[in-house]
Amino acid sequence: MKNVKRFMNKSNLANPIEIIKPSLEDMCTLDQITEKEGNKKNAQIQVHEKNHEEKEHNYLKTTTMPTISPLQLDQLERSLEYVEASEITNEQNICVVLPNLTPQIIFTEKYISVEKIQKEFLPDYNLTENMWLFQRLTETFDQKIMTKQFAQTIKKDMILSINTNVSSILSYHFDAFIAQYNLTHDAPLILEFKIFDILANLKQYFEVKSKLKKLGCRICVEYMDLRAIGVIDHNITDIDFIKIPWNKHDLKFMAEPFGAEIKAKIKALNKMQVILIHCGEKEAITFGQSLGIKIFQGFYVDKLQSQ
Questions:
Q1: d(CA 223, CA 200)
Q2: Which of 109, 107, 127, 132 is nearest to 117 (CA)?
Q3: Helices (H) and strands (E) in the chain, counts
Q4: Coil, strand, or helix at residue 122?
Q5: How far apart are CA 95 and CA 24, in angstroms?
Q6: What pTM does this model have?
Q7: Which has the closest alpha carbon to 53: 122, 135, 109, 123?
Q8: CB 228 within 8 A of CB 199
Q9: Three-state SS for 218?
Q10: Which residues, including other chains, have CB under 8 Å from residue 18's CB and lie 6 or more apart?
Q11: Best CA proximity match to 20, nearest among 95, 92, 102, 93
């Protein structure tokens, strides 16, 4: 089987989706995925820590705590200045998942762990309840990630994605980070933006998109609602990957007349660039595969890799 990472090689940046397509087809061919290669791939997998992203989300959402104040946010940001980014980050693999086969890593997302920060600095306060204060905090997260020092800690053979704010790409922090990253990595960096961040300032996004394409980076839009999948023209926004969160309520929605329309829209987008995330159970994988999705992220995917 050809190496799955070849689709990210900088020598061929024209159309990442077309480049990844043969890799996925290769994976579908059982006689090309030998037991030996499966074991080798397994040895490279780093199983995501137990405090994965879904756990963070549930922990922060269900725990009743007072909301952080502006003063506490300022104190927290000052405290984070003395913390190494590697101490507060988690990582999770995004994988092709096919029946009866070991998940194959496409890329790995590194992100700041809100749960780690909360438990360490403000265990009795909710960091995410106030949307505006949390948005300010995520800008601090970007600065922690976007350093030369952090770029040097990334394994050379890792295809990396980081979630960030659109505005942070225009900062000198990102310029220093990407310069160091490109010195030691052949695979281009993947930047993940939340859909509402893009829509909040489309003019700025187009400026950022132009900058990233010149640098050879990829763009991933996350938290695209399944029901709105056809609203955004991915050709205009120049999206390489789209992340859709798994939601059990979508099972009922897809059973309605809208279901066929959604499937058609996903197929039109090119199913190989759609990623179903927050997959904490087998049901999520089954649902995604029924839509033609082959790429997944979540705790259940981590579990499959560890088996």
A1: 14
A2: 127
A3: 15, 8
A4: coil
A5: 11
A6: 0.78
A7: 109
A8: no
A9: strand
A10: none
A11: 95
CA atoms within 13 A of residue 228's CA, in its CB half-sphere: 12
**Interatomic CA distance for residues 222 and 220, integer angstroms:** 6
Q: 170 burial class (0-12, 13-18, 19+ CB within 10 angstroms)?
A: middle
CB 128 within 8 A of CB 60: yes
Supply the DSSP symbol for 229. T
CATH class of 4-306: alpha beta
* Alpha-helical runs (H) found in the chain: 16-28, 35-44, 53-62, 70-80, 114-121, 131-145, 148-152, 172-184, 195-200, 202-214, 234-237, 249-255, 258-269, 282-290, 299-306
In the chain, the amino acid numbered 305 is Q
Contact indicator for 77, 132 with CB cutoff of 8 Å: no
Which 3 state secondary structure label does DSSP give 257?
coil
Domain spans of the chain? 4-306
275 DSSP β-pair partners: 243, 295
| pLDDT tens for the 307 residues of the chain, in order | 333 333 344 434 334 334 333 344 444 443 343 344 444 444 443 434 344 444 444 444 445 788 999 999 999 999 999 999 989 999 999 999 998 889 999 999 999 999 999 999 999 999 999 989 999 999 999 999 999 889 989 998 899 999 999 999 999 999 999 999 999 898 999 999 998 899 898 999 999 999 999 999 999 999 888 877 766 666 666 789 999 999 988 888 787 777 788 888 888 776 558 999 999 999 999 999 988 899 999 999 999 998 8
Backbone angles phi, psi at 146, to 5 degrees: -85, 70
Angle at 268 between CA 18 and CA 160, to 5 degrees: 45
